[in-house]
Amino acid sequence: MQDIFLFAEQHFALMAALVVVLLLLVILELTRQFRGARQVNTHLATHLINHQNGVVIDIRPQDGFTKGHIVGAISLPMTELAKSTKKLEKHKSNPILIVCATGLDSIKAANALKTKGFNVFILQGGIRQWKDAGMPLIKE
């Protein structure tokens, strides 16, 4: 233990740099946690769906949903999401996975649901990433 204090005394600049880096990492992580929904890849998304009873909300327009969607997904286009949050109240204790075409539109929807107390996740890369990973889609 004395060696650590001796090192700190002799290398004050290095210790100060270490403290600054650690503080920045903590600040970065805290802002990431409070900023909005967490983005998950297809592997984590399937884990949420299969092991934590995750609910998939597809915010694409209805025509995109009918061309192919994740099994068990609920179609709730972005235009209807603000009006339909009462439909989702029964799923408030479950993880909500927001899916769009590319993963970009999901951020706004996820933030809206997060402010209402939902546990929200975003499928990184959207349905395109899901297809590219070879994951199954249901077509109507």
SSE topology:
Elements: H1 2-10, H2 12-35, E1 38-40, H3 42-51, E2 55-58, H4 62-67, E3 74-75, H5 78-81, H6 85-88, E4 95-99, H7 106-115, E5 119-123, H8 126-132
Parallel strand pairs: 1-5, 2-3, 2-4, 4-5
C-alpha geometry = elongated
Q: Give the distance, in angstroms, between the N- and C-terminal Cα atoms.
A: 67 Å
* Radius of gyration over C-alpha positions, nearest whole angstrom: 21 Å
Helical stretch count?
A: 8
Largest sheet composition? 5 strands, parallel
The H-level CATH homologous superfamily of the largest domain, spelled out, is: Rhodanese-like domain
Q: Can you count the beta strands?
A: 5
User: What is the top-level CATH class of the largest domain?
Assistant: Alpha Beta
pLDDT below 50 for ≥5 consecutive residues: which ranges?
none
Residues in helices, as a percent range: 40-55%
The averaged pLDDT comes out at: 89
Order of helices and strands: HHEHEHEHHEHEH
- What share of residues are in beta strands? 5-15%
What is the strand arrangement across the widest sheet? 1-5-4-2-3
Number of self-contained structural domains: 2
